[in-house]
User: What shape does this take?
Amino acid sequence: MKQYDISREEAYKLIQIEIEDYWIIINEECLKIENIPRPVLEIIFNVARVTEFTYENFEDKYTKAELMKDYIVAVLIDPIRIEQCK
Assistant: This one.
């Protein structure tokens, strides 16, 4: 913000644009790569997903665990059951 003399909101918008651009790059590169096993790529991709989730909306769910409480409850306590069609 200081470097470019912009507001917090403008900085957040620029960061969001960069995040979207990097997801495009990650997706394109994952489709091109042939010499790395798919399970390894999936692990790397999932780490990126978890990182984005942990810091989405410019909130730090890692150090402020109470922000993650509802998600944990949804996954572990109140999961949505999906039955397979026969």
